[in-house]
Automatic annotation (TrEMBL), chain A:
GO terms for cellular component: membrane. InterPro entries: ABC2_TM. GO terms for molecular function: ABC-type transporter activity. It is found in: Membrane. This is ABC transporter permease.
From TrEMBL, chain B:
GO terms for cellular component: plasma membrane. This is ATP-binding cassette domain-containing protein. Pfam families: ABC_tran, DrrA1-3_C. SUPFAM superfamilies: P-loop containing nucleoside triphosphate hydrolases. It comes from Lentzea tibetensis. The lineage of its organism: Bacteria, Bacillati, Actinomycetota, Actinomycetes, Pseudonocardiales.
Length: 358, 292
């Protein structure tokens, strides 16, 4: 067979494998439920806080008290006893009573901080270099980025599952006698990558809508460029993990044994997630994380969002990530070929490596 | 013709196949006979490239078999397996396309095969919903969908009820009649005896006998006869030049050592009526035991 026609059949085999993986996935209820919950969660995060906040705090006021400018929902009552009754029955958050020249605030169990801050007079503040986003919003966006990375990283476990299914049912013998092992691996990674890209794009399109509904339209200007970085990083990060997931699946012969070989891959997903969640305000750690291939997928977009990384840093890290994708996929394809036809117990990595040569 | 030449393979220190050579001729059903662990499955995996040989070659039409020729082979592995959660027809069609067919042809072949195998009604069911016997028929369909030029089937009849054996046999014979060489393994002698044209017997990783079924029988046939006479046949013991194997009233089985069959027959007729006089052809089972 000539070079070009064998390349054509490699591509055709890869496409067929990818197609099968995707259609199997798109037909499973679990996929749609999981994805639906994620989209809903995204909207919930954006919309719920403003719904739950529910206007200014309610207070009961005894006598004439000057509350000029304070953002409070005032209910005038006749005496202290009536005010205390309202506080006890939780109908108001606090009572405000005139005392001397000022006021006394009566709360139930804890000092009502939002009422107190509404009453306080803050000194005027001017910032020399105002931050783009408030710390709360920053943390929220980082949490969402890290969560999406975690979700898709773990989603790669489906590749390990499908590889084990093929080994366990022995259909792998038919597949291997028909198409190149590398086409099988490439098809699996491609199929699941397309699914992931599709989901990421839906989320990336839904995010601005959710922000607008939640009344955070002002955030769009900062979130959108970060999304532009997040998408390519997430896709490359997924391919990297997908290759490792496939190897994890090829090392065992039965679903029951999958847990043991998946542990390491789960650490590669959880590590970056917790790293970013715990250290997002420690620039040195984040800088390191943003260049290490597996954690770069989430750490670099977060740094860019927080305004801590220059564009060239993003491009450099993306290049490193792309390079490591090539290296890891090549390594994985050798291990995958070497272990796919080994049955029995768990295949040692060294054995899988040597086996690919014969 | 599919030709296996001097194939050897070790697992660790152990030689599983030692200098194995045989042919699978087009248009014929070749039975690959051997006890469990004799090396049948290993040999078939090597033909399909699932396993590498340490020495020797496999050729098809005189050309060494490679990854680019194997898609035209049909293979049924020993341990059955297809995707449990995929629908029957969809799965067969997908495998056809994986072997390089276009979608329309693969679909047409799937429909034809499913009706040939009495599975049309189950076309839309998930594989795991079928009985084991039906799953096995689907496995046959999976091996045939791409109109293979060569068929290699590992224990295709094990686990099938007698009706299913007939259905599957019809389907395979039709392929053989179209000139496809069919190699199938079995450890059940009776099955091979009944179904094959040619036989290859393997024992302990080495070929101990091969040829057409009838050739083998003739080759392994000792000059053995069965004689049934009217009264007691005890006198046969005294005929010179023969060795009695079995004597039971009027029936006697004997091997010729130096006498001729006609001499014995004439002696029998001299003593009275002869009810039957037949050469005894060995069964494959006997050949198998002897060859092993």
């Amino acid at each position: 067979m000539s070079e070009s026609s064998s390349n054509a059949s490699f591509a055709a085999a890869t496409r067929l494998v990818a197609e099968r993986e995707m259609s199997t996935f798109l037909r499973s209820k679990g996929f749609w439920v999981g994805f639906g919950v994620t989209v809903l969660a995204l909207f919930a995060i954006a919309v719920l806080p403003s719904l739950l906040a529910g206007g200014p705090p309610k207070v009961a006021v005894v006598g004439s008290v000057s509350l000029s400018g304070a953002d409070l929902d005032v209910r005038q009552v006749n005496d202290l006893a009536a005010a205390e009754q309202l506080v006890r029955s939780d109908e108001v958050e606090a009572a405000i009573v005139a005392e001397g020249t000022g006021v006394r605030v009566i709360g139930l169990t804890n000092p009502p901080s939002d009422v107190m801050s509404a009453l306080a007079t803050e000194p005027p503040v001017s910032l020399l270099e105002p931050a783009d986003v408030s710390p709360g919003v920053r943390q929220l966006v980082i949490t969402v980025f890290a969560f999406v990375f975690l979700m898709f990283g773990m989603g790669g476990a489906a590749i390990a599952q499908s590889t084990v299914t093929e080994k366990q049912t022995r259909i792998v013998e038919i597949l291997v006698s028909t198409i190149p092992v590398r086409a099988l691996l490439a098809g699996k990674i491609a199929g699941h990558a397309v699914l992931t890209i599709g989901q990421v794009l839906v989320l990336a399109l839904a995010a601005p809508i959710a922000l607008r509904i939640g009344g955070h339209a002002d955030l769009l200007g900062v979130v959108l460029p970060a999304l532009g970085w997040f998408v390519p990083f997430l896709v490359l990060g997924f391919v990297l993990l997908a290759a490792v997931w496939a190897v994890a699946g090829s090392l065992v012969s039965r679903q029951e044994d999958l847990g043991s070989s998946m542990t390491l891959v789960m650490m590669l997903v959880m590590g970056p997630y917790f790293g970013v969640m715990f250290f997002f305000d420690q620039p040195v750690v984040m800088t390191v994380l943003s260049y290490v291939p597996f954690s770069a997928a989430v750490a670099m977009p977060v740094r860019i969002f927080a305004g801590e990384a220059q564009v060239w840093e993003g491009l450099l890290s993306l290049g490193l990530l792309a390079g490591s994708v090539v290296v890891i996929v090549l390594l994985a394809s050798r291990l995958y070929s070497g272990s796919l036809l080994q049955t029995g117990g768990k295949v040692a990595l060294r054995k899988a490596w040597q086996h690919a040569e014969s | 013709m599919l030709t296996v030449t001097s194939i050897s393979r070790t697992f660790g220190e152990k030689w599983v196949l030692d200098d194995v050579s045989f042919d699978v001729r087009p248009g014929r059903m070749t039975g690959f006979l051997g006890a469990n662990g004799a090396g049948k499955t290993t040999m078939m995996r090597i033909i399909l490239g699932v396993l590498a040989a340490h020495r020797g070659t496999v050729t098809w039409q005189g050309v060494p078999v490679t990854a680019s020729t194997r898609p035209s082979f049909g293979y049924m592995p020993e341990e059955r397996g297809l995707y449990p959660k995929m629908k029957v027809a969809e799965q067969i069609t997908w495998l056809g396309r994986l072997h390089g067919m276009d979608r329309a042809t693969a679909q047409r072949n799937t429909d034809l095969l499913l009706s040939e195998l009495d599975l049309t009604e189950r076309a839309g069911d998930k594989l795991e919903a079928l009985s084991l016997g039906n799953q096995q028929r689907v496995q046959i369909a999976a091996a045939l969908v791409h109109e293979p030029e060569v068929l290699v089937l590992d224990e295709p009849f094990s686990g099938l009820d007698p009706i299913a054996v007939d259905t599957v046999l019809d389907v395979l014979r039709k392929r053989a009649a179209n000139g496809v060489p069919v190699l199938f393994s079995s450890h059940q002698l009776a099955v091979v005896e009944q179904l094959c044209d040619d036989v290859v017997i393997i024992s302990g990783g080495a070929i101990t006998a091969s040829g057409t079924r009838d050739e083998l029988r003739a080759q392994y046939a000792t000059p053995r006869f069965e004689l049934v006479v009217e009264s007691d046949a005890g006198w046969v013991r005294d005929v010179p030049g023969i060795e009695v194997v079995e004597l039971d009233g009027p029936r006697v089985v004997f091997d010729l050592t130096s006498a001729s069959d006609q001499q014995v027959l004439r002696a029998a007729l001299d003593r009275g009526a002869v009810r039957s006089f037949t050469p005894v052809v060995p069964t494959l089972g006997e050949i198998f035991k002897e060859a092993a």
